[in-house]
Structures are given as C-alpha cells and as structure tokens.
Amino acid sequence: MRAPIGFRISNRRKSLRISQAELARLVGISPSYLNLIENNKRDIGGALLQRVAQHLGIEVNSLDGSDEQKLLQDLEEAYADPMVESLPFQHDERRQLVAQYPASAMAVARMHRAYVDARSSADAYAHRLRSDPLLNQMLHQILSGITAVRSSAEILEDVPDIDEAERHKFLSAIGREARILGDVARSLIGQFEVTSQAARTVSTLREIDDLIIERQNYFPQLEAMAEELRRSVEMQGPFGPAVLVDVLERQFGVVTRIGGRPSVPDFPGQYRFDAESGTMWFQGTTTLATRQFQLARLLGELLAAEVMRQTLDGAVLTNPASRRLAARALGSYLAGAIVFPYAQFLEAAEATAYDIDQLREKFGGSFEQVAHRLVSLRRPGAEGIPFGFLRSDPAGRLTKHFPLPGLLLPNSGHACPLWAIYGAFRQPDTIVRQAVRFSDGSRYLFLARSLQHRPGSYRDQPNLISVMLACDVRHADRTVYGSGLDLMDQSADVPVGPSCRLCPRRACPARQEEMLTPGGEASVTRLPLIPREFGLGDLG
C-alpha cells in the first residue's frame, strides 16, 4: 500500500493557508500536476519532494511516507483481525485515516496492540489451566481448602453451644487451611507470572521493531563510534579477524579459541563469549566473515557500552527482555558499522552498482551482513538506495525484517508465497530477482538468495535461511540486478500481495488463506502453507 504522501502535503498546505496554485508556482510545477500528487495519483520524490518540504516548512521524513508506513502496517493488521474483518471497510479507508486523522489512527493501532497482548495473555492462561497438571492440582487444592474452611466456619456459625475445646479445634483447622491456601495461591501466582513473561514475547519484539523503524535503522551516535573504533583497530594493522583478536587480548584480556568444546556444554550456537573466563569461542567450521563480525561486535560492546546505554535509555522498552534484545540488535548494528565503514561502503556500493558479491569480497563480509548494511545507508544527505529487508527460515517464518516506505511487510501471518524469498530455497546459491506489482500499482524489485550456515559436524543438520532485499522499481536501474530487465514493461511483473489475507487478488492460484472482503465474503478456504513469527537473529 502506498503511503499517503499526497494527502499529507495537502493537509499541510491547507493548514498554512497556501493555495494549490501558489505552492505549484513555488516548487516549479503545474497546479494540475500538484493536484494529482495531492490526490496520491502521482509519485513524488527526490528534489521535488525536498522543494515541497522546504516551502511547507516540514521535514522530508514527515512527507516521504516513512512516518506513516509503520502506522499503515499496524492498521492493516488491526483491520484484518477476525473480530472486525467482516465490516464493510472502504478500499483506501486506512490510508485516508492515517493521512487525515493520524492521532485517531494511532489510537486504533495502540488499542489493537493492547487487545492482542491481553488476548495472548488470556490464551496462555487458559492453555495452562487446561493442560498443566500442576496447575490443575493447585486449583484442586485451593477448592478443597476453601471447602474445608467454609465447612468449619458454618459449624461455628450454626452451632452456638459448642464447647470451647471444640471451638478451638475448628479455629485451628481454619487457620491451618488458610495458611495452606496462602502458600498454594502464591505458587499459583508464580506459575502465572512465568506464563505471562512468555506471553509478552510478541510485545517485546514489537518494541524492538518500533525502535529500529522509528530511527529508520540509522543510529548516528553508533556510526560515529564505529568510525572511531575502526581507526583505532587499523592503527594496529590491516583490519581483519587477526588484528581484532590481538586488540581484544591486549586491551581486555579476551582469549579467542577456535574449535573444541565450548565452555558451556551442549551450547548449540556457532560462537559464544564467556565473560567469566574472558574467552571468545568459535565453532571450528565458522567462516572468517562470521568471526570478523562477532569479534567486531564484542569489541564494540566493550568499548561503546555507554553510547549503547544512552541509545537504549531514549527508547520505549517496557521490560528487561526488550532491553536485552534491543541491546543485542544495537550490537549487531555497531558491528556492521565497524566492518563496513559508512562512507567507504556507500562509495563501493555505488561504484559496483550494489553488487552484493563484489561488496562481500571487498569487505570480507557475508551475503546477509552486506544486505543488512545496505538497509542502514540512511544518513541524511548521503543516502544509498532505500532497501527493505526480510529473512526467512525454510518453514516460511520471517525471522527478521525492516520495512520500506510504501511496501507493506506483514506484521503477522505469513508473506505472499509468490515472493522471491521463498523461491530462493528452490535455487540454492543463486540470486533470484523478481519485478513485482502490487494491486495498488506499486512496483518493486525483489532480490533473494538462500544461504546455509555451516554445520558443526557431519551429524548436524545444515541451517538454511533465505535473505531478501526489496527496493522501488524506480531504483532498479542503479543496481546490477536491473540489467537486462525491461522495467517499462509491466506485463512481465509478477502480481503479488503482502499476504493472502491482505491480498485482494481473487484469482491468484497461490492463495493459501481466505481473502478478507467487505461484508465477510471470502474465497475458498485452504489450509495455511507458510506460518510466520518474528524475532531477532544475529548476523553470521
């Protein structure tokens, strides 16, 4: 769904009491063309968007759709909820709500999020009550205790001439049962608190998504610190794993060990830092790119702890789990900025037409690391091509994402099964490119590749993932991946949607879930093919 840039321009112009003709004259276009823009029938970007923003006295970020995209995405999820999906919503109702009444749109999104969180907690509690024998036993104890207390109390109430010894016996029984009830109730509450913590996982990941999207995946303080750390490392020798190992050992006493058994038995990961022993352990089969990246992360986390703390303090993170995972995400960002210095990386990206394989060779990174760094090239005045990013496992779960203004990346359910991110699993070690067109006419270039993390031994199963980058088709000719594509020929585009439940294409043969339509009409229901859940993963 296109972000309502035109509506935002129109509202701002009207609030400043500037006529359409006057604004058109100031920015150097015709009033009729401005009218098309304001009605969201023409795209606007580049220098023209900057001139419009300048004359309206507003930041470009407030007009280019990035502010609205996350809110649109949340509304799409809210309107697709089974509780309201049958209501006769208009086709562009959500977009107009975001453009004209952003506070009301935000209220709807926040209430839906609160409702989802409450429902998740209630479902978790109900599941525990139904399936957990310990909780059933506790509830039985509580009911038995209440029955015993009530029985003794009724005897004391109904038998006025009971002797003192018997009265004391019943009072002792009531006190004893009451103490037992208290202990059982505290245990029960403790069990529910554990369940509640688990149920807040979705909220935790949402908060981290909000932090990254709010900052447009660009953190200037971390970029500045990364440049300083990179310079200090290069003073010791050519940047790479060997120098990083040496710096970590000399400055922090960290010993790097490759191969053998980790300090924690049965640890499943490819690497682990044991703070107690000061040991950085890598699986023997980890690649040089993984070692370089994780050593850079460790160095950054040790030397830039205060900068990272300040960044976290400025974010809305409501629980320790959110803060811990956000710190991990910022550590990955800092490591990427150290391994791929902003100015050098952007220059190389432009020079190679964003050829990911060439960038991997030049900077010694992995495909996923390079793709993720491309997404963070958002420095004002020195932006790269704006990319969206997705990562999936073979089951179709999207385990990492960063949206692109205008491109709806699903917040729940599963992505469109026609997307290249899933097709890449059928073509290993090959970049799959795909020109796609959504039902609103927006067009994008999708690039995806499946990757395999090396197993630790013959007995281990390989860990497969698929990584996808997406950019507006207008930027495709700036990339090597647009070569040979007739970008003007829309007949070659693959018609797609964000996900089956949000896609209005009735005749799509790949549909796996029924379509949401006004009045509750739906296509034939099929079992979902690709489940999905969000999370944060480290770059390897």
Automatic annotation (TrEMBL):
Keywords: DNA-binding, Transcription, Transcription regulation. InterPro entries: Cro/C1-type_HTH (IPR001387), IrrE_HExxH (IPR010359), Lambda_DNA-bd_dom_sf (IPR010982), ScfR_C (IPR018653), TransReg_Diox_bact_type (IPR050807). Residues 9-63 form the HTH cro/C1-type domain. Pfam families: HTH_3, Peptidase_M78, ScfRs. It comes from the Bacteria. The keyword Transmembrane does not apply. Belongs to the short-chain fatty acyl-CoA assimilation regulator (ScfR) family. PANTHER family: HTH-TYPE TRANSCRIPTIONAL REGULATOR (PTHR46797), HTH-TYPE TRANSCRIPTIONAL REGULATOR SUTR (PTHR46797:SF23). This is DUF2083 domain-containing protein. It comes from Devosia rhizoryzae. The lineage of its organism: Bacteria, Pseudomonadati, Pseudomonadota, Alphaproteobacteria, Hyphomicrobiales.
